[in-house]
Structures are given as structure tokens and as C-alpha cells.
Amino acid sequence: MTDLVTFGETMIRLSPPDDERLETTTELEVRAAGAESNVAVAAARLGTEAVWTSKLPDSPLGRRVTSELESYGLETDPVLSDEGRQGTYYIEFAGEPRGTDVIYDRADAAVTTARAEELPIERIRESEWFYTSGITPALSDTLEETTEELLRAAREARTKTAFDLNYRSKLWSPAAARETLTGLFEHVDVLVTAVRDARNVLDATGDREAIARELADEWGFETVVLTLGAEGALAVHDGDLTRQSAFETETLDPIGTGDAFVGAFLAKRIGGGDIGGALEYGAATAALKRTIPGDIAVVTSVEVESVIDTAESGISR
Amino acid sequence: MTDLVTFGETMIRLSPPDDERLETTTELEVRAAGAESNVAVAAARLGTEAVWTSKLPDSPLGRRVTSELESYGLETDPVLSDEGRQGTYYIEFAGEPRGTDVIYDRADAAVTTARAEELPIERIRESEWFYTSGITPALSDTLEETTEELLRAAREARTKTAFDLNYRSKLWSPAAARETLTGLFEHVDVLVTAVRDARNVLDATGDREAIARELADEWGFETVVLTLGAEGALAVHDGDLTRQSAFETETLDPIGTGDAFVGAFLAKRIGGGDIGGALEYGAATAALKRTIPGDIAVVTSVEVESVIDTAESGISR
Amino acid sequence: MTDLVTFGETMIRLSPPDDERLETTTELEVRAAGAESNVAVAAARLGTEAVWTSKLPDSPLGRRVTSELESYGLETDPVLSDEGRQGTYYIEFAGEPRGTDVIYDRADAAVTTARAEELPIERIRESEWFYTSGITPALSDTLEETTEELLRAAREARTKTAFDLNYRSKLWSPAAARETLTGLFEHVDVLVTAVRDARNVLDATGDREAIARELADEWGFETVVLTLGAEGALAVHDGDLTRQSAFETETLDPIGTGDAFVGAFLAKRIGGGDIGGALEYGAATAALKRTIPGDIAVVTSVEVESVIDTAESGISR
Amino acid sequence: MTDLVTFGETMIRLSPPDDERLETTTELEVRAAGAESNVAVAAARLGTEAVWTSKLPDSPLGRRVTSELESYGLETDPVLSDEGRQGTYYIEFAGEPRGTDVIYDRADAAVTTARAEELPIERIRESEWFYTSGITPALSDTLEETTEELLRAAREARTKTAFDLNYRSKLWSPAAARETLTGLFEHVDVLVTAVRDARNVLDATGDREAIARELADEWGFETVVLTLGAEGALAVHDGDLTRQSAFETETLDPIGTGDAFVGAFLAKRIGGGDIGGALEYGAATAALKRTIPGDIAVVTSVEVESVIDTAESGISR
Amino acid sequence: MTDLVTFGETMIRLSPPDDERLETTTELEVRAAGAESNVAVAAARLGTEAVWTSKLPDSPLGRRVTSELESYGLETDPVLSDEGRQGTYYIEFAGEPRGTDVIYDRADAAVTTARAEELPIERIRESEWFYTSGITPALSDTLEETTEELLRAAREARTKTAFDLNYRSKLWSPAAARETLTGLFEHVDVLVTAVRDARNVLDATGDREAIARELADEWGFETVVLTLGAEGALAVHDGDLTRQSAFETETLDPIGTGDAFVGAFLAKRIGGGDIGGALEYGAATAALKRTIPGDIAVVTSVEVESVIDTAESGISR
Amino acid sequence: MTDLVTFGETMIRLSPPDDERLETTTELEVRAAGAESNVAVAAARLGTEAVWTSKLPDSPLGRRVTSELESYGLETDPVLSDEGRQGTYYIEFAGEPRGTDVIYDRADAAVTTARAEELPIERIRESEWFYTSGITPALSDTLEETTEELLRAAREARTKTAFDLNYRSKLWSPAAARETLTGLFEHVDVLVTAVRDARNVLDATGDREAIARELADEWGFETVVLTLGAEGALAVHDGDLTRQSAFETETLDPIGTGDAFVGAFLAKRIGGGDIGGALEYGAATAALKRTIPGDIAVVTSVEVESVIDTAESGISR
Q1: Which residue of B has its CA nearest to C315?
Q2: CB contact under 8 A, E70 and F68
Q3: Are F81 and F113 a contacting pair, CB within 8 Å?
Q4: Is the pLDDT of residue A316 over 90?
Q5: What are the angstrom distances between the C-alpha of D116 and each of D55, D132, D142?
Q6: What is the rounded distance in angstroms from the CA atom of residue D212 to the CA atom of residue D194?
Q7: Which residues of F touch D61 (CB under 8 A)?
Q8: How far, in Å, CA of B174 to CA of B179, rounded?
Q9: Å from E246 to nearest chain F CA?
Q10: What fold, for A4-313?
Q11: Cα–Cα distance measured from residue D43 to residue F286, given in angstroms and rounded to the nearest whole number
Q12: How many Cα atoms occupy the beta-carbon half-sphere of B173 within 13 Å?
């Protein structure tokens, strides 16, 4: 039986090397990147039977995506299509004040036409967990419907559902996001959100703990995980609050940090860990991710545990 | 005064190095590429005051295109737009029997919305020549109209018009191309076409000479240039036929060979050369192009003339 | 059910770029490479449910191997070990008369200690086909025994067995190879061998057809496939002889050509094809392989069929 | 009408990648680099009609320079010559205590023979501003004369003149520089200098403000801009003093910071900005430059304004 | 006459670029690396007539080692062998908490079979100094004997002997190291050790000074140098204690820092410097090394002296 | 005792990768290159005790040259100077009709000031052979004198002298070359020249054999070697004529082919080989060189002999 199915868009990420500008670069580095596959890979590498599904063009570019994801040990089960593009995004890394900049080129991607009936919905029903994020319904009206149907199908089949708010201002406004996303919350067991998005999109108020408790109460989530950037994370689960600080890290590539956190959190929960252990596992994996080029946490459980042990023992390596 | 204005889409060309497959590559080489800018650059480098116009996204990707074109000495005068993508294409180079493969990702490019009234139509009217190709009207209904309007405006202003049939089977069928393109022919002074496309798209029959004469007669072109691949080219101009054989070349990158030919042909004509000299100049530039990576003929007139002189003197370098 | 299990060593292949010498290179390209995984990947890409098994160090280097193989769509099922190295080989590409040179650094690889009882022998028993090659028993005494046990187990379970002679003069002498390999032949259904090795190692005499028939008769193989380099291949199957010429190809990297042939031959046979179709499929895949960098035939069935169709129709692309 | 003409040497900059040593590198990165073209590019990108003139060899190396400069949107108008080399410089980047090291190889560059009468002096006369720096007269006796003539011609035509002291200890001694440069000051409206050079070359004494006021008084400059490294800049203009602190930045490549400052300062002044706005614009552009590889500030006005706005609002991005 | 002979293994170091993971890299950077050749190169570059000896495979890989070492100005005098591998090591650079990781692949290297009688022992006898480290006897029983014989031969010939403890936990346990290494101490004049190894391997107790004095007393070393990482080094020589703080440095590649220190220390001693001068020279060279990619201190004496002068004058460059 | 001393300029060779144009390249490959060091390296690798001397700037660029040369096993003994540049040359590789193009940037190189009295003339006197080429006296008046003095000194000391005409049309005219070079011939034992240069520079007439005999007779050379490109070489030695055909080769980089020939020819002569053996050795080394990137024949005697043996046995590898 599958432990975790995730659904969402995976793009080809194109980035100039060595902080070169997009305007002048003669070369682009190529990687697969997408929130839901990032989560699935992190979970898979940490012991979970994880499957990622999506809709991809039946082309070398679509194969570029599955090829890389499978190289990390992930099972992929996408629908292949003759219509729709392969979504891409360009990322220009730079120090401040230039700052890292992202240009999406994901309109009309094949995934935007994915309907629930063509996706492997039986695998979701038979899986222990299902995960998607707030990026998916933002991509098209069809995907808004599909996301709702998949979450509903999962819940009906007693598959646990996890959902990361993942607000993207380049895709929609806070108000539009709020309306769509809150409509999905009735199907969600575990909500993950950056505290900033909780305030900005969900109009949450008060301090962090109050926000987590209020979200849990208002929408009836079993678990609410609030990510706090450099200050770690906190969770309210069945009314109990747990805090986790962040592990120190030297950042090479910050993209995908949140997904690494969620993937490891889910892996630990699926493996029977309690909320505290899962937050700690998530935070350690997130710290490792930031040292790794690309969106994806190419880690091992030995490495994650070593980060936790080293920090606990107070010994710097 | 401008000698030549060209109008059309310029894409970002992405290619894996060293015959690597798109499915597995970790790197892509980046270049600007488009038939009409290829022609304009070749002409500009060979002494023509050439301007390329188009519609581009106002983004680093749009600037990537103008930046590279201007590096070759071309003047660019594009409309910048907040709507529409930057078109791209992926090209996987390979020996036979794998063969080089192209994947277009140009749908919904900004240029597909370009209307005549937003383009620098006055520059076309004041230019000596105007050039576009059969790719342009294939890209959108809007561009079909725009192409017709620009050609018409040029002719009304006594700007000479040159048009390369440039049939692309990935964009439309021969029948659709025929219907649209022949509708434009009344505005065209100089038609360039591969003999293969003349047969396949225009239903031309007979031997090469017959085809050239028949096209000239049927549509009233001042000049018809038929390109013959490794066998060179021939032209019918005011009823006279001229033949030009191809120069020997070691091919590194064949893309853009035809555009190099046309750009050099126009440069020579604009500079007052006769048809024979222009064909020879085109053929020599085309031979040089094939030794140069990328779509664009980064050549000098000294080099083109050296190719001609060396071949004439029978001395191998 | 699995269609094909292959067993053998996969190395990390290290090669200087651009014909640079090993003595002076500052950079090495890294790829996974091994006859039995090459065969499994080719078969998997052409529609076969293929699994590769081996013994690998439980290290980043071992994971480098499985990571790349899985990126091609292959299922891997290796034993992981704390003992034994990751085998490597260095390859220096060069034109003649320098010639391409290989340096093996595979002694004491983890796989040399692989015993049948630790390998997934049940998967072999339940598979339709099992494949290994003459490289495997050459690597260690343990592997000589293991190869014999796996072939025996396969035959006992009515799993068909295919075996490529794959003589490597850097591993053993013709005499040593003959003694060991002929001892395995009683467990082999399909023998593949280069005609040169048949002569040199198996002391076969006569012309090609005679050699194929003689091998089939002497050892009772159901099928004997003789590969002939640029002259293609021929097979004797149930007493019938079939010939296949080679497809023309521009060679970028010849390593793995034979494995691509065998993988595609097996894929076609497993899919129900007859011997002639399988030889043709193998020859077309081999031709494609030579245009692809690395040991592995990263192809699709569409591409293989296109090679066959193009050649049959006499149309050059 | 042209807003700004700059005159000076642009070299080819050669640098080993990744902090490799020149002694051992097998590869060099290639860029165009020169104070006066750096200034012109920065100004051009921020809205100024800027032209750079110089004298270059009529060779691929000379074209390498103009090609790159034009890719940034700069107009170039160099004299081409059959005599004289293309100047180059080698730069080895390194952390402390090794430190970044520069080796000039610019002796006998074509530009060292440039006489005023062969340069496009009419464009200077018709331009709003003219800029050169203290590097130019240091390069040859001819250039010392030429610099004087160009500045004089500009002033006679009521073209405003800006001059950056740009002392280079590898080219001349402080005493030699003082003698030559002060001889030019009568033709200069705006003097820019690092406070360190003011002290070391011009023998200025006192605190920063005193130095700026004293220089303005002594030589009658309309504006004196003193750059202070990490502490920003200050200016005395018509007797009024204005201060500007530096914007925080993560430095990737510090070369060209001062030129980015001057180019943006001039762009703002040319566009009608006051001294305070011009200093702020300069400082923000300088901060951006330090995040960009190469000598040149490949920025947009949107980016520069965003740096200013972000800093003013006190919000870190 | 030779000033210094060193003996030990030099490996080929393979590292993924740009903090990429070994598991996913497609490229490895190649360098020569080994404690004893690192020391010899540093000494040679700082004015010492140094020779490195070892045993290498007579292959392109063995030549890769000598080729690179000789490029730094080192004389190499290895035995070439048809048996034994070329040792390699893989190094994956990463920020914390991932951390840099090393995988040795050095078992059965040719050097592990090196016997004293095949090595150029006469050169050691005729040299002023001989150096090896605690890595060498850890590599094989043969090398344990050989190390003892070479040190003994040196002492008998009044060649001064220097020995760096260089404990490697991946090669042996502290107890095994202690037993072997202390057996060699009777032949050693100058012992260098990290204070951490002195405690961990030699069971030294007390503060740093006490440890240095105790080691000197217990084993009769003429000089004991204790390296203290970021806190510099201290030495006890003929009963006198000297301290040296570390020079500030921006670390690009820390590997080989200790060897750079020892090589420069020996160069200064060989050139007649006192202990204090040698420690200072060592510390400055170590600081430079950390800015240089690779294991080896590619420095000049001018650079080392500049580091010392700058620090002494309190002027930051 | 040294077998061979060579004297001449070694440049830094800068070439764009992958047939990119100099005008557009962002990267240059760096190598050491010079006729006389090319000869010395080839000879050294084939068993000769060879030393190369020259005059170099005392800079990282000068060290770049010696570092690379020593990596090939050559002993270098240059004078280091604070005056004069490091000569460079740019080479743009391309297929026909573009063709490979060279741009020298070697004016005012340090070597142009080298006087005999500062060079290690004693090493020449004590060497068995001395070699320089017609490039050296073309570089400056000083070098014309120096070349004459070194050749004279060699002859006086009974050191054999070999001289390659090496006419370079970018350095001087045939008439100037003839005047200078023939003035040196009285000091030359072995003259090597391309037959084309013999005709063009020395005004030799008749067929090849006649030319060789005539040169030997007219100037009293002990040996005249005429190189004939793809047709091999011939020699007249003590009145006897010997012919050698060229070995087949796949050309990657033709630069340095002649130097490889001469270095191997001299190595064989120095080792006691007869003229026929030396020509064969030269031709085989030249064939290998063409498969190796860079100017230098990084070969081994095993490889050279293998080329000869394979060709003799008529077996293609």
C-alpha cells in the first residue's frame, strides 16, 4: 500500500549559473521543481512509499521531469498528454539588494487541464495520506475543481489529507486565494502555512500561537503547522501546542525549504512519530535542504538524524 | 534612412550541449533565434542599415533577445508588452539516425498579439526594403492580419518587399499555408522559397527552372529565388534565370542557413549588386553560417568575400 | 510479473571531456555503466518490465549508480553492503591512431562478493527472462559460482535465460573464459556473441553461418545471435537462419552498442516478436545508441520504429 | 541629440573562474571592461542617450568589445585602427588574505594613439555632457594631449564635463598624476574622486567636508563628489553640501562600483534630478553592481528605484 | 643536495562542483592530493629543494599525479609499478549542517606495497630533512615497516626527520594509531600534531603548553609543534615555548591547511629561520591556502611575506 | 648531461571552446604554446633529457607557462624579467570555409629582449643538441642577434644544432626571412622545413628530392628534413635520401603537428636511431598529436611505437 500520494505541477527550473543575469546569460542550469513533488521526494527519501501524480506533456520535456524525480527514488504516476505545455520557471539568484528573482512561464501547462477522472484517484483512495498545496487550485479553474474532488475523494476513503497554503502572489490575489482555499478546508486534516500567509491571506490576527489555535478551531483541522522562517515552526494538534526552533544552516539555495519541511514532517508522522518528533524532523531536513542546490531535498535519514543529534549534543561538527 | 526593416518572432533557443538528450540534460545553451532577425543580422553585418521589429515581453527574457541581437550590431525596435510570453524553442542536436529534433514552445508569445498600429510602421514606409517570412502569419490570426497590413503599407510606400515562404509543418498544414500565403503574394516583390516548399505548399510542378519561372509569372514577382540545399540556388529576375552552386562547408550547426542566405542576398541587392552577385554573396554567407554555432551568421564582409575569392581561384586554404 | 531480471556489475564511468587526456584533465564526466544494466535500461525503455539487481556499497557512490539507472525508468533491486568498493572505469576518448582507451578500476567491488542467497532470486524465478553476461563470472570466484546458481535457478523455474559472451581481455584469457563460460552453457537458452569472440574464445571455425549453427548444435541453445559489427547480425533459432544488416549511424560514443542491441532484441522477443523483428529492433536501437553520449540507450520505441521505417522507405530524413 | 559622450579605453577582462589561480587555470572568463564605457552603460540603462568612443583594433578582439557593450544597449562610436593592440587585463579573484589581484596588459593598445582629430569630436560638441577619467591621460603622452583637447572642445561648446580622478598606482605616481590632472581641471565642471585619492594625489587635507569644499573652491568646480566606499558619498554643489550613505549589499564582484555610481549620478542629473537625488541614485546603482558579475552595472531603473524604496521604507525584502 | 624528501601516498581527488551532491553529480573536478606531497609542494614553492617519492601505478592515472605535482615546481621521484591501483578520494563540499564529506577509495593502492629497498633511500640519506606523516603507516603493514625503515635510515644518515601525526579515524582506531606511531617516535626530531590528536591518540592531558612540553620530554623530540586550528599554533623547541596566532582568512577550501603550515614551517627552518619565524611563515601560508581551491598551497614567498607584513602593520589591504 | 636545449618564445594560447567566435565568446581555454617548447616536450616525453630556455615575465602569466610545461615532464630554465609582456595568441577553430584563424598578441614580449649573455649558454654548450626555429629571430632585432650567438656558441662547443625554418607570414616577409635565416645556416647541422617554405622563402626549385639535395649541398647541412604535410616527409642525410609517408589520423587540433614531428625525430636521433627510424618516429608522433587538444604532443613512447607497429602489421585497431 502507498503511504502518500501528492498531486501538483512540477516545472522545469532554469537558472543562470554563478549569479549571472538572465538578460546576459549564455547558459541555464536545468532542474525539476514543484512543491508537491518536492514534498513527495523528501518523504520518499526518508522512508515513505510516496507517489507523485500530475499531468505532463508526452515529450522529452515531460520525460525530463519524471526522469529527474525518479532518480531521487520517487515513484511517478503522471497522465501523459498531447496537449498543453511543460511549465517552466526562470530563477535568477543574487545577493541583496538585487535579490533572487523568479519568472514563471507556466501558463497553459498540461497540468492545468487535469481532471480528477483521468488521474489515478484509486491510488489516492488506497493511500494512507494525500497531499497537495494552494498552488494547484490557483493554476486554472479546472484545477480548482480537480483539487476539490481529489481532497473530497481522499476524505471519503479515510485517506488523511495534508495541505500547504503556499500562497503565490504572482498567481492570484489574497482575496481570491482566501475564497478558493477556505472552500477546500472542510476536506483537510493537516494545514501547513507560513504565519505570514495566515495573516495576509486568511486574515488571521493575534500572536502566532493564537493564530494556530484559531485556525484549528475555526476550520476543525486535526493539526495546524505554522512555519516561522528562521524562527522555526509551531503546531497545534488536538489542542496541544508544540514549538520547534530552526537548525542553523549556511544557505546555498533556499528554494524548496518549506517543502522539505513538510515532506519530512509527513514522513515522520506516517512512520508513527508524534508531532514534536515530526516538527524536529522537518526542521532538520529544511536546514539540510538549504545547503543543496535545486528545489529538492536530496537527503538521507542518516543525515537528518545526524543534524538532530549534533544539535542536541551541543557539539559542532 | 533605413535600408531594411524586418518583422517577425525571435525566440530564445535552448539546446543541450554535446549532443546530450533533452530528457537527461542538466544544462542548456541559450541563444536568440528567429528567421526575421537572423536575416536582419546577416544583412546588418554585411553593410546594411537594418532594423528588426517585433513585440516582446517587457522582462529579462525579452531583454535577453534584444541584448543578443544588438551585440551583433543590429538595431532593434520592438514593442514591449506586459502581456504574452517570450517564445522559446528547444533543439536537441544529434547525428543520424537520431537526427536533430526541435520542440517549439512559442504558443501565446507576445508577438502573436502584435497589431500593425502598434508597430513602427513609419520606419517600414521610410525604409528601402521590408522583409518578413511565412512563419509570421502562421503564428496567430492577429499576425496573419498584421503581416498583410505591413506588406500592404510597404508596397504603398514603394518600399520593396521580400518574403521567404519558410514553411513550418509544426505550425500549419500545406493547404492552410497555401491559402494564407498566396493571399499575401500580391504585396511581394521578391519571393524566396525552398524548391521543396514550392512543390509541397504551392503545388508547383516541373523542374526547378520551370517552377521558378511559373511562380514569377503566376504571381508577378519581380524576383523569385529558389533555394536548393546542397545544390545551391537559382533565381528568375525580370525573366532572366541565374544559377548559383553552393560553396563547400563543414557543418557544425545548420540552423539559420537559409536566413543567412537571404540576409546576404538582400545586403548585396541593397548595395546595388546584380542578381548573380547577390546569389553568390548569399551562398558564401550560408556556407560560413554552417560553421558557426547558433542560428545567426556572425560574419564579416571580408570573410564572405574571402570565401568567394578562394573558391574562384580554385585554391583551397 | 516482471518480464526481465538482469544481474551484473554497474560501474561509475569517468571520462575527460572533449578528447582531453586523462593525464592532463581537470574534469571528468560521470555516468553509470554496466553491460547488464545497459541491457535492462534498453529493454525497459522499449516496453519491458525490467529489473536490475547487483550488490552495491551503501554509499553516495552506490546511490549515484541507482539514481542514474532509475532516472531512465529502470527498476533497481540491489543488495546494499558495507563492504566492497564501488567499481569505476576511466575512458579516454580519442580519434585514431590514438584510439579510445579504457582503464578498469573495478577490483574488490562490492559485487564481487555477491552470493546467490543474498540476491533477490525469487524475482528471477518469477520473471519471464533472466539475463547476465560473460563479464560477471570473470569478476571473482564468488561471482563465478553465483552466476552458475542464478542461471540454474532460472532454468529450474522455467525462466528463459539469455547470455552475452562479452569477452573482456583485460579480465581473463580466452582459455580461462572458455572453460568457465562453456560450463554455464547448459543453463542458457539464448546465446549472444560477437563473431570475433566466438572464434577467439570458443574456438569456433568456419564462416559466420556455420559458426552460429555449430554453436546452436553443440550446446543446444534455442537461439544463437552472432553480432557482426558494421555488418549487422545473424541468428539461428530452432534451426532457421535470419540475417539483419546494420543501420547507418554517425558515431558519437560507441560504448554500449552491443548492450543496446541485446536489450532491444529481448524487449521485442518478450513482447512476442519473431527473431527477424527482434534482430531489426536490436539493430535500430544499436544505431541510435551510437549517437547518444554514455553507455546507455536513452531511446523511445517511437524513435526505434522511426529508424526502421525510414530505412525501409528508403527516404533519408 | 546625445545626452552623454564618454571617451576612454575598454579592455578585455580575463578572469579564472571559481577563485582559481592564474598560474594554474585552464579557463578564463571574458568580459569587456573600462571605466568610461562602464559609466556610459550605466547611464544608458538608466535612460540616458549615451555614446562611448575610443580607438580599437579592427579585429575580432576589438569587435568583442563593441559587441558586448552594444548588448547592454549602449551606442558605440569607436575609431577602428590597423595599428595597436587590444588592451587586456587579468583579474584573479580571491578572499583575504590572498585578495583580488589585477595584472594589466594594456601597453601599446590602439587607444594610446588616439588623437582628437580622428575622434568624433562633433558628437562631443553636440552632446549635453562629456565624461572621461584620470585613467585616460595616464595611458600615453598622446592621450594626455587628446584628453585635454576633448575637454577643452567640450567646454567651448558648452557641453558639461564630468571627470573621475580614478587614480591607478600601476599606471603612474601620485606626483605625476597630480601634475597632469590638475592641468585638466580648468575644463572640468564636475569632479568625482575617492576621498583617498584626493588626499594621496591632490594633497587634500582636513576632514571630508573640508576636502570637498576646498577642491570646489580651489579649482572652481561646479560640483565635487567625494566617494567614501562603505560610508557612501558626499557632494558640494554651488557651495551646498549633500551626504548620501551607502546601501547595504552582498558583494559578488566589486570591480566597477565607482563607475556604476558615476553613471547613475550623471543619468539622474541629465534627467533633471538634483544633487541629492543623483547621489542616492548613484549609491543604489553601486549597491546593485556589487551583486553582478563583471565590471558593468547591468541594471534597470525599476531595480534602482526599488533599492531606494525598500531602504526608505525600512522594509527588508 | 636535496633539502627535503617526503614520502607518502598522493591520491586523485574527485569533487563535484558547486556543492552538488555525489549522488547526483554529472561532473567531478580532478586534482592531486596527499599530505606528504602537499608539504613538499609548499616547501618547494617557498624556496626549498624538495623531492616527493612514493609508489604509483605506471598508468595515465599515476601520470596524472606526477604531472600535476610537477606543474607546481616539485621534483617527483616515484617508483612506477604494474601492480596496485591509483588511490582516489571523493570529497563533497557543503555548508553546515550538511558539512563537507570525504569518501576514501584508496585500498590496494600501489603505494601500499612500497618497500624501503625499492624507494630512493639514498636521496633520503643525502637530504637535509625527511618528512612523512601518520597516514603512511596506517595504509598497510608493508608501509608500517617501510615508514620505520625510512625514518631509521634518515636518522642514521643524520637527515633530520619531521613527522605529522595526521590521525585519520577512517583508517584506524586511536589505540592502533598510538601503538604504531609511538613506535616510530624514537626516529623523529620534529613532531607536529593537532592538539586534538595529541589528546585523543596520544592520551596527552593538561593544557596546551603542558601537552607540548610533556610530549617533548617523554619522547625526546627536538621540536614539538602543536596546531590549534583557528587559534594558531605553539611550539616547544629545546625547552622554549613559542606561540603563534592564526591569520584571518576567508575559507574557500580548508583541505590541506595543516600541510601548508608544515611545508612552510619546514621551508623556513631549512632556510635557517628560527622557530618563531617558522611558525609565523607556516601560519601565513596556511591562511593563504584556505583561499585556494584544492589541497595544495599554490603560493609564492612574496605572497606569504605580504600576509605577514600586512598583519604586522595593522593595515587591512 | 643534457641531451637537448631549446630556445624560443612560449605564449599563452587562448581559444574559444566549441568553434565559438572570438567576437562572441564568454570563455577562453588557456594553454601554453610555442614551437621550441613543443619540440622540447615531445622529445622529453620520448626519453630525452630536454631543457627549454627563454625569457619570461616574473608574473603569474609567466608562471602559467612554466607550470604547464613542467607538468609534461619538461625541465624549464627561463630567465625571469620585470620588463616585457607575456606573449599571447588567440586561436579561433572552425571548419571550412571559415577556417581556423590565429591572432598574435606577442609584440614586446619579455623574450624579445633576451640577450645571449643572460641565457644559460653554458647548458647549451654542455648539451648534445641545441634547437631553435625561424620564429625566434623574427621576433626582434635583439633576438636575431641572440639566435645567431646561441647557434654559434653551440657549434663552437660541438653541440649539434637543429633548426626548423618555421616561416610565419604574420611576422615578416619571405625576403626578410630569407636574408636573416640564410645568415644563420652556417651554424646549423640539421635543417627542417616544410617544402612550401623552402620554395616560398628559400627560393628552392625543382621537385622535393631536388630541393632537399640542393639545400644540403648549398648550405652544407648534415641533414635536411623536408616535411610534406599529408604526404609525410623526406630527408637527405650525408647524401642519402629517405622517405616516410604520413600515418593516418583523425584531426582534432592540427596546431603543433610539425613540432611533434621534430621533437620525436630529435629524440630518436639522440637515442641513436638512424634517419629512417627518426622520420618514422616523427611521423607517428605527429599523427598522435593531431588527436590531442592543444599545441603539445602529450604522448608516450609506448603509444608512438604502437602507432608504428599497428601500421606495419597492416591491422587497423
Answers
A1: B97
A2: no
A3: yes
A4: no
A5: 11, 13, 9
A6: 11
A7: 22, 90, 103, 105
A8: 9
A9: 26
A10: UDP-N-acetylmuramoyl-L-alanine:D-glutamate ligase (3.40.1190)
A11: 54
A12: 3
Q: If pLDDT is split at 50, 70 and 90, which confidence band does E317 have?
A: very low
Q: Do C97 and F71 touch (CB under 8 A)?
A: no
Residue C62 C-alpha, separation from nearest chain A C-alpha, in angstroms: 13
Q: Which of B259, B274, B295, B309 is catalytic?
A: B259
- Shortest Cα–Cα distance, D301 to chain A (Å): 12
Query: Could you please report the per-residue DSSP string of A142-201?
Result: HHHHHHHHHHHHHHHTT-EEEEE----TTT--HHHHHHHHHHHGGG-SEEEEEHHHHHHT
What cell was used for A283?
A: 526542521
Tabulate helix, strand, coil % of chain F (nearest 5).
Answer: 45, 20, 35
A141 Cβ neighbours under 8 A, 6+ residues apart: none
Interface of A with D in 2-41 (CB under 8 A): 18-21, 23-24
What average pLDDT score do residues F196-207 get?
96
Q: Which set of grid coordinates corresponds to residue D308? A: 531606494
**Are F31 and D30 a contacting pair at CB < 8 A?**
no
Half-sphere exposure at residue E38, Cβ-oriented, CA atoms within 13 angstroms: 30
Contact B27 A28 (CB under 8 A): yes
User: Rounded to 10 degrees, what is the CA torsion of F40, F44, F49, F54?
Assistant: 30
Any bridge partners for residue F191, and if so which?
F163, F224
Q: What pLDDT, on the 0 to 100 scale, is given for residue E128?
A: 98
Q: Would you say the pTM of this structure is higher than 0.90? A: yes
User: Could you read off the pLDDT of E30-44 as tens digits, one per residue?
Assistant: 999 999 999 999 999
C-alpha cell at E151: 625514518
β F240-244/C27-33 pair status = unpaired
Q: Provide the number of CB pairs (under 8 Å) joining chain D to chain E.
A: 43
**Complex ipTM:** 0.94
- What sign does the CA torsion over E112, E115, E121, E124 have? positive
Catalytic pick from C164, C189, C259, C295? C259
Amino acid at E87: G
The pLDDT tens digits for A203-247 are: 999 999 999 999 999 999 999 999 999 999 999 999 999 999 999
Angle, CA E304 vertex, CA E252 and CA E72 arms, to 5°: 70
Cell 623530540 belongs to E221
Q: Which residue of D has its CA nearest to F61?
A: D23
Query: What is the distance of C-alpha F130 from the center of its chain?
Result: 12
Which residues 107-146 in chain E show a CB within 8 A of chain C?
Answer: 107-108
Q: What is the mean pLDDT of residues E221-235?
A: 97
Flag whether residue B248 sits within 8 Å of chain F, measured between CB atoms: yes
CA dihedral B251, B255, B261, B266 (to 10 degrees): -150
C-alpha cell at E314: 595593522
* Rounded to 5°, angle at Cα F14 from B26 and B306: 100
Which residues from chain D sit within 8 angstroms of residue E247, using beta carbons? Answer: 97
Question: Which residue's entry shows cell 535600408?
Answer: B3
- Among residues C60, C48, C109, C70, which one has the least CA distance to residue C278? C48
Q: How far apart are alpha carbons E164 and E156 in whole angstroms?
A: 20
F197 is catalytic: no
Specify whether the CB–CB gap between C26 and C288 falls below 8 A. Answer: no
Q: How far apart are the first and last CA of chain F?
A: 39
What subunits make at least 3 CB pairs under 8 angstroms with D?
A, B, E, F
Q: Do A310 and E94 touch (CB under 8 A)?
A: no
Q: At what angle do helices D60-71 and B60-71 cross, to 10 degrees?
A: 150
Nearest to A27 among B29, B67, B88 (CB): B29
> C-alpha cell of C117?
542467497
* Cβ distance of B71 and D73 shorter than 8 Å: no
